[in-house]
Write a structure and sequence with these properties.
Length: about 100
């Protein structure tokens, strides 16, 4: 339980950080990594980038503030990720915003 409290506090601090926060993304980013990279102000990713919320696959809701982040994605893409937990690749991530 303490781990999750620490994780949520870190995500909130990143989200409210006054200076630019740059996440460099190369490879697979899942669960907590999504929170650490997406709550910041800037993201740079390579064509190797992949994203997923795998906790959905075992019956948990998307955490790390995903309910705040996912609705901002293009179309109903956030809903798709929240319901399926499927992994998306670079091109889909660019399209979704």
């Amino acid at each position: 339980v303490e781990f999750f409290a620490d994780e949520y506090r870190l995500n909130a601090r990143i989200n409210g950080y006054k200076k630019p926060y740059l996440a460099l993304i190369d490879g697979i980013v899942m669960g907590g990594g999504v929170g650490i990279s997406f709550h910041g102000s800037h993201r740079v990713m390579t064509e190797n980038a992949q994203f997923a919320m795998p906790e959905v696959g075992i019956g948990f809701f998307p955490d790390v503030g995903a309910s705040h982040l996912l609705p901002d994605l293009g179309g109903s893409f956030g809903m798709y990720l929240a319901l399926t937990g499927n992994r998306i690749r670079y091109g889909d991530a660019l399209w979704s915003g």
